[in-house]
């Protein structure tokens, strides 16, 4: 009897333990499933302007408390979307890094609203020895002939555009490569007004690019550099135009005729040549 009771108690304890284990496992599964979300990430490195397809994406579990804003949970929702910034393998695909829906692939997809892309010809010197890479910012200097206002007028170099984004070098738009590349053309992102200014600048002189720190946003205003400022000479004052006026003076000559003494009788005036007189009778 005692053995039967002990066996019964053992069976009850065993059943209660199994039930506790099953309940705990179910609770853990529910907690783990609610603590993570499925997020779309890139399976390969993606360059800006590149359209997306299913072979480049996959779903991974991501802690729900750290899912970045704009993440996607459906791979099909990204079919055909264009990347406007480079993505690394395993990086979440965010809406802020994609061009608007319907945008076609290519460089035009990465141009910001209200901006334009213009290409300028460069060489190994003008192109900052190939260090002006996509994603960098540059200033544009033009060297031209100054208008002749003084005898020292000549060549002048002046910064005409500041903090211009480099979109592409040659046909490369990748922003991940840090190796310098000597190319013959650089594509810049400018406003319409800056595009007009840059087109005039390259028609009146030669252009040079000046690489600047990406965090430096300060505007500068220089007067330009000439041969005189380079050698430390003071600028020659502009010649003063002197206007002379000729005064005309009119001289009136008068002749005084001496009065004749008064005479008695009848008198008349007599004019003989240039001489005049009075005759009395």
Automatic annotation (TrEMBL):
Statement: the UniProt record of this protein carries the keyword Phosphoprotein? no
Judging by the UniProt lineage, the source's domain of life is: Bacteria
Which key words tag this protein in UniProt? Membrane, Transmembrane
Please name the InterPro entries in this protein's record: Pilus_assmbl_Flp-typ_CpaB, RcpC_dom, SAF
The record's annotation in SMART domains points to: SAF
- A Pfam family of the record is SAF
Domain named SAF: residues: 37-99
Q: Is Membrane among the key words of this record?
A: yes
NCBIfam families named among the record's database cross-references: pilus_cpaB
Q: What is the protein's name according to its record?
A: PILUS ASSEMBLY TRANSMEMBRANE PROTEIN
């Amino acid at each position: 009897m005692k053995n039967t009771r002990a066996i019964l108690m053992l069976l009850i304890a065993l059943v209660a333990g199994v039930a506790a284990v099953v309940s705990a496992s179910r609770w853990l599964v529910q907690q783990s499933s609610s603590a993570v979300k499925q997020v779309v990430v890139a399976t390969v490195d993606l360059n800006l302007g590149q359209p997306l397809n299913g072979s480049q994406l996959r779903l991974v579990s991501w802690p729900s408390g750290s899912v970045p804003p704009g993440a996607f949970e459906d791979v099909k929702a990204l079919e055909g979307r264009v990347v406007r910034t480079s993505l690394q393998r395993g990086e979440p695909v965010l809406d802020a890094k994609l061009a608007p829906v319907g945008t076609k692939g290519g460089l035009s997809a990465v141009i910001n609203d209200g901006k334009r892309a213009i290409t300028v010809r460069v060489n190994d010197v003008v192109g900052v020895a190939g260090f002006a890479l996509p994603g960098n910012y540059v200033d544009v200097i033009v060297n031209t002939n100054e208008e002749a206002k003084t005898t020292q007028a000549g060549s002048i170099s002046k910064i005409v555009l500041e903090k211009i984004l480099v979109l592409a070098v040659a046909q490369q738009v990748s922003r991940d490569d840090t190796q310098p590349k000597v190319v013959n053309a650089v594509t810049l992102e400018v406003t319409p007004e800056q595009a007009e200014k840059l087109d005039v600048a390259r028609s009146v002189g030669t252009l040079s690019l000046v690489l600047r720190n990406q965090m430096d946003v300060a505007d500068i205003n220089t007067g330009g550099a000439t041969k005189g400022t380079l050698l430390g000479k003071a600028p020659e004052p502009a010649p003063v135009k002197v206007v002379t006026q000729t005064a005309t003076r009119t001289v009136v000559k008068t002749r005084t005729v001496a009065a004749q003494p008064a005479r008695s009788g009848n008198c008349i005036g007599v004019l003989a040549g240039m001489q005049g007189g009075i005759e009395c009778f």
